[in-house]
Amino acid sequence: MTDPMALVPPDLLERVVRGWRDMATRLVQIGRDHPEGDRGVFVNPAAGRGSTVLFSSLEAMDRAGHGRYGPELIYGAMGTPIQHRLEAVIAEIEGGAHAQVVPSGLAACTLPLLAYLQAGDHCLLSDSVYGPTRRFADRVLRRFGVAVTYFPPMAGEDELQALVRPETRLIFAESPGSHSFEVQDVPMLGRLAARIGARLVVDNTWGIGLFNPFAHGAHVSVQALTKYPAGHSDTIIGAVTVASDADWRPLRDTAIQAGQTAGPDDCWLTLRGLRTMGARLERQAATALGVALWLQSRPEVHRVLHPALPSCPGHAYWARDFSGASSLFGVVFDAGFTQADLTAMIDGLRLFGIGASWGGYESLVLPTTGGISRSCPSVTGAGPACRLHVGLEAGALLVADLARGLDGMSAARAGRGTG
C-alpha cells in the first residue's frame, strides 16, 4: 500500500504545516477564562442562552444601547456573551480589531456587500468567488442598482485598472478561488483599492490563521467558520472581521439592521472546535499534500490545483504570503475522460464522502465540472474536475481508495478505444 507521505519533500512538508504548528498553543489559550486567586473556572465558557436582557433602569438600558459597537449585552439578537467571546478570538486570529459573527459563511460574504455598497455604486468581484456570493451579486445587488463586473482572478494591475469606474467602491477577492484555487495577488489588489478609494474584501476561509489579509492591504476579511474552526460538520456559522473603526461601524449597524447574528450554541461549538484546529490541520494539511503529490503522478490527472504546488495558478503568491496550507484542493483530469467517467469514479469511492461544504474531520469529494459559473476561462476547464477535502483518515488508505477509482476510469476509457 502506497504511503503518500513518502512522496513529500521534508522542506515542503515543513512549509505546509508550520503555520498550524505555530498557532496550536495560541488557539488553546485565547478567549478563555483563567484562574485568579482562589476562584476556579471552567475550561470552556458557558453558552449563555438568552433573548431578553433586564436592566435596573431605563437610563441603564439606554446607555447599553449606545454601546452597540462594543461587546455590550443589549438584547439576544444583538449578541450574547459567548458570541462576543468568539468574535474577540476571530479578530485576534485574523489580525483585525473587530469581528461580527453571523449565521453562515454566505451571510459573512453578503454582509459587507450590503454594508458598503449602495445604488449607483460599482463592485469588482473575482470570477472565482464562491458560487452563492456570485448569485447574491447577480440577483440582489444588481436588483438594488449596484453594477457588478467579474475580473479574471489572475488579472494584473493594469488589466484591473482598466475595469475600474469612477463609482467603483468595492473589490471582492477570494484567495484561493472557490473550486479553481487561484491564489490572488492581494497586496496588489490592496494597492489598487487604496489608489481608487475603494474597500478590499477578501474571503479568507481557506487561509484562516495562515494569511493575514490586513497586513496585505485588505479592509475586510470574510470567514465561513462552518469549515475548519467549527471543524465537525455540524455547525453553520460565519464571521466578518475589520481592522478599523471606520469599517466597523457601518458593518455592525448593518448586521443589527439585518438581524445577522449567530445563536449561542453555534458560537459555543465553534469556539470549542477552534481549540483543536491547529492539531487537526497540521495532520490534515500534511496528508493532503501527500495525496496531491500522489495524484500529480497519476496518468489520468491533467493538473493538481493545490496552492503549495507549482501547478496551481498563483503558487508564487502563496509562497510569498501564506505561512502554510489547508487540506482542500482541486484536481483536473485528462480531457479524454468524460463527466460520466468522473461520476462513476466518485460513486465508487468508499472513504471520500460525497457532499457540499468541507473543513470537518472527514474526507470529501465533489465534482466541479458543470457546477461552477464563470465569465472568464477557468483553469478547471481542460477536462472533468473535482474538489477534494482531506480529513483525518490515514493517507495510505485514501490513496488506495482513489487508486481503485482511477484504475476504473482508465479501464473505461481503454474500453472505448480512446486510451
Automatic annotation (TrEMBL):
Which InterPro entries does its entry note?
Cys/Met-Metab_PyrdxlP-dep_enz, Cys_b_lyase_bac, PyrdxlP-dep_Trfase, PyrdxlP-dep_Trfase_major, PyrdxlP-dep_Trfase_small
Question: From which source organism is this entry?
Answer: Komagataeibacter swingsii
Q: MF terms per GO, please?
A: cysteine-S-conjugate beta-lyase activity; pyridoxal phosphate binding
What is this protein's gene name?
metC
Q: Which cofactor does it need?
A: pyridoxal 5'-phosphate
Q: Which keywords describe this protein according to UniProt? A: Lyase, Pyridoxal phosphate
- Do the record's keywords include Lyase? yes
N6-(pyridoxal phosphate)lysine is carried by which residues? 227
**Family statement drawn from the similarity comment of this UniProt entry:** Belongs to the trans-sulfuration enzymes family.
Would you tell me the protein name for this molecule? Cystathionine beta-lyase
